[in-house]
Amino acid sequence: EYTKNNKVNVVFDGVGKSTYEGSLQCTTIRGMCVFFGNASGAVPPIDPLTLTKSGSVFITRPTLSHYISSPQELKFRYDELFNWMEKKEVNIKVGQRFNLSKVFDAHTALENRQ
């Protein structure tokens, strides 16, 4: 819907097990698929030949501690992000909100890419 069925250069998948195949399918040739969460379970092992069939797609599973090594660096990164938001250099879109009592509905929406 957002891409008009065009594949994208980078996919960020925070859901995991139930969405990883779709994430790989919508990544363009030589694109990057970033798996950073496990809301529906861990992404299972991926056969390298699958990446070839998907268009020589690169995958990664970053861990925050490899990118933020100290409390000072974490504060610097947060300050940088909020500065970008204030300057409208980055826009954070909140598509839906759920009451805490509807946590199951929130997870279902994530898993269904809603």
Fold and architecture overview:
The protein is of the alpha/beta class and 114 residues long. It is 36% helix and 16% strand. It has five helices and three strands. A three-stranded parallel beta sheet has the order 1-2-3. The longest helix is centred in the C-terminal third of the chain and has 16 residues, at 71-86. It is globular and about 40 Å long.
List keywords for this structure.
36% helix; alpha/beta; 3-stranded parallel sheet
Biggest sheet: strands, sense, closure?
3 strands, parallel
SS elements, strand count: 3
Strand % is: 15-25%
Give the helix proportion (percent range).
25-40%
Beginning-to-end CA distance, first to last residue: 11 Å
> Taking Cα atoms only, what radius of gyration do you get, to the nearest Å?
16 Å
The number of distinct helices, counting runs of at least 4 residues, comes to 5
The gross shape turns out to be globular
Helix and strand element order: EHEHEHHH
Strand order of the largest sheet: 1-2-3
Average pLDDT, all residues: 91
Give unreliable regions as ranges: none
Classify the secondary structure makeup into a structural class. Answer: alpha/beta
